[in-house]
Amino acid sequence: MPRVNSFEVEITTGAQGMPGPVKFDFNGHTMEFQQPEGGTAAGEKFRGVFPARSFAHSVALVGPPEGKWKIDELRITYHCDNSEPYAVTFTDFELDDSVALDIWRPAPLPTFDV
Amino acid sequence: MGLLDSIGRMLGKKDRESEAVFPYQAGYKASDQPAAPAPAPAAPAAAPSAGSAAPAAFVSLGSMGLGAAEPPKRRQVVQAFATVTTLGAKVESEAPADPSAIRIKAEPQSSGDTCKFLVDRPVFAGRSWFFAGPGVTQGSPLAEKLFAIPELDSVLIDDSTLSVTRKTKDGDWKSLATQIGALIRAQLESSEPAVATSIAEKIPGETEIRDQIQRVIDLEVNPGVAAHSGHISLTAVRGNSVYIKMGGGCQGCSAADLTLKEGIHRSFRSAVPFVGAIYDETDHKAGLNPYFR
What we know:
The complex is a heterodimer of chains A (114) and B (293).
Chain A: E1 3-13, E2 23-26, E3 29-32, E4 34-38, E5 45-50, E6 54-55, E7 59-62, E8 68-80, E9 86-96, E10 99-102, E11 112-113
Antiparallel strand pairs in A: 1-5, 1-6, 1-8, 2-3, 2-7, 4-5, 7-10, 8-9
Chain B: H1 3-12, H2 14-17, E1 76-78, E2 83-86, E3 104-108, E4 114-119, E5 124-131, H3 141-147, E6 152-159, E7 161-166, H4 174-189, H5 197-202, H6 206-225, E8 230-238, E9 241-248, H7 256-271, E10 278-280
Parallel strand pairs in B: 9-10
Antiparallel strand pairs in B: 3-4, 4-7, 5-6, 6-7, 8-9
């Protein structure tokens, strides 16, 4: 299980925005991003970071407080111990007020040609 | 600011959060956020134990005795397809000068004892076969050559992918994988089939395999795992590869891997000898309290 030093999100909202604020669950604790920029209205981009400095058991993007939230692209960049930074990208999905999206993925396995 | 500091910040915001009406109806603007309080002195980040079984969502402020805030909704954690890419990794190799050259990529698995080899062409087209050790190669030339390497324990060939397991979990795969890659390449460059034709000819159709596997699940596997409130379901048979899902007490259980390899694999292979690969499609992280979360 890797130690996550920090992670950044960039969310491009699609046709339906959400009232916000953008929240996430880290190991079951619901929080907001630090240094937020932008917005979550239709067509807007939101950016935020979180210096977790902790081991990741679960990370989830919390759905909107009400209604639906259409997301064109969600990109999370994880900075973990003992691995290169890596990006997890989701495209074209929708969240509502009953769900949270699992956004945790471990670092990709190293590969090499033989 | 670490995780604990941020939790503290969130707890401090409970009055604002308990308001039912959000003021951002036209869309949330980061600039709408109230100024953050001065950060507390940094506290060491805590590492929750694996057994802490974090809830699926929200910390309940009300249940912590921190105020009369309405208990937050419990949300279902959902999955979606994602692409994962390493940033800044240098390109390991250029495209080969000879486009007909066989390309093989080695991918050591997190378990440590297994390495996948992704070949750019079929090794055993549309079929799979599991070689449990050097005594069961049945004249398959690639398996015989691979088991001449004493470190190797088992080999699974599934179409264009090989999963090779060695006897130890520790140590670097680079040298061993290079040796294995050379053997795979040499085999494909020869005109000889990698897997003995006597094996390929005996593999029955998908329907027959499906019926036999379902019978084993119904009569042998499920009665066994039912004692732990678990159940196994057959999701697909493709070629002679079998796909299953584990449910009930098996989903998310810390012993699921042991059940799969020591119980289900053995039962399937002994009752239906022409089964090749067996894949568990269970999302062991789903649900409210799985061990794997």
